[in-house]
Target: Slr1687 protein
Amino acid sequence: MAEEILRNPAMTALTLEQIASQLDSPNSRDRLIALASLRPYSSEEAVPLIKKVLDDDTLQVRSMAVFALGIKQTEECYPILVKLLETDGDYGIRADAAGALGYLEDERAFHPLCRAFYEDTEWLVRFSAAVALGNLKDIRAQTVLLEALKSDEAVVQQAAIAALGEIGAVDAVDAILAFASHEDWLIRQRLVEALGNLPCDQSRSALTFMVKDEHPQVSQAAQLSLQKLDLLS
Model:
């Protein structure tokens, strides 16, 4: 339902006064529409209204509100998101908070995201933390992301491989090349995409081999990454 609302501008043309009123509606759909309607407004206008529903009874409303804090950025957003990441009882909200911290691209988020990866027991939170660390583009995340490669969850491994590419961790090329023959083609796709951000001889050699991958999306991504390396050289 939230995705439908976000895709339909006709459903989200409300004034700030209407949004404030609709956020008090007993109907969760009305509250979702109100949150989506904040899209054209400034962060300073939107954040006070977003905060009204951070403790909403409906998880979908809370999730959209947390996501919105990563997009509508003010100084208030960072401490709110860190608190949610570290203390919220719902793992989905903690994962949302991790993702939103990545959108903030605030270097202060590095340590909270690392703690979440190491200490949270839910794979979804660990996945979101890995993705967010990539969004921060902080090379200090390399150690955490290399640890994430050892996860039993394929999606966490995917996130770690992609993030290592995002942060430009050339030293990690050998570690991620261990996934070149992985049975999961999505992991192989993330690998070749990451290699396009990691210019070195090993990356080019691996991509030259992986353009022959049996899965067309992996092969195509490898070709694009080779072209990207050509531009970087």
Residues 216-232 form the longest helix (17 residues).
